[in-house]
Amino acid sequence: MTLFVPNPHVKSYSDATVVPVGAGALVFVAGQLGVPGEAASNDLSLPFEDEVTACFRNLEAVLGKSGATVRQLVRTDTFLSDLSLYPLFAKVRSQFIGEDPPASTLVEATLLKGARVEIAAVAFVPKA
């Protein structure tokens, strides 16, 4: 098992865990917020579509450091602070996920620090 901590300013937290399985590896990605880049300030004052874009870019970055891509996602769990935001979320999501989406769950929830979106995911990376 390998742990990845791309945001070193957050102690005792792993953004991803890679678990070897028979034909490859599963990459479990912890919930990612829509904070641009690796900003320690956690500025969530972006327009919602920009927050979703930042969330997916963070997801891509963690997957990349773990040897995976969004095309290898097999599951996503999305948490929105308000389900009425879903149409805007879906518009941005389609730009990243494409036409073959993974199994997905959507939940309305109170999120940390005023965030409006958080995405946790699992990817499968086949052996090369």
Give a topology summary.
Elements: E1 2-4, E2 16-21, E3 24-33, H1 48-65, E4 73-80, H2 86-97, E5 103-108, E6 117-126
Parallel strand pairs: 4-5
Antiparallel strand pairs: 1-2, 2-3, 3-6, 4-6
Helix pairs in contact: 1-2
Beta fraction of the residues? 25-35%
Order of helices and strands: EEEHEHEE
> How many DSSP H or I helices?
2
How many discrete domains? 1
Main sheet overview: 6 strands, mixed
Q: Give the structural class.
A: alpha+beta
Fraction of residues in helices?
10-25%
Tell me the CATH superfamily. RutC-like
Radius of gyration: 14 Å
CATH topology: 60s Ribosomal Protein L30, Chain: A
User: Which descriptor suits the 3D outline?
Assistant: globular
Class, according to the CATH hierarchy?
Answer: Alpha Beta
Task: Give a structural overview.
- There is one protein chain.
- The protein has one domain (2-126): 60s Ribosomal Protein L30, Chain: A.
- By secondary structure, it is α+β, with helices and mostly antiparallel strands.
- The relative contact order is 0.24.
- The longest helix has 18 residues, at 48-65.
- The chain is globular, with a radius of gyration of 14 Å.
- 23% of the residues lie in helices and 34% in strands.
- The protein has helices at residues 48-65, 86-97; strands at 2-4, 16-21, 24-33, 73-80, 103-108, 117-126.
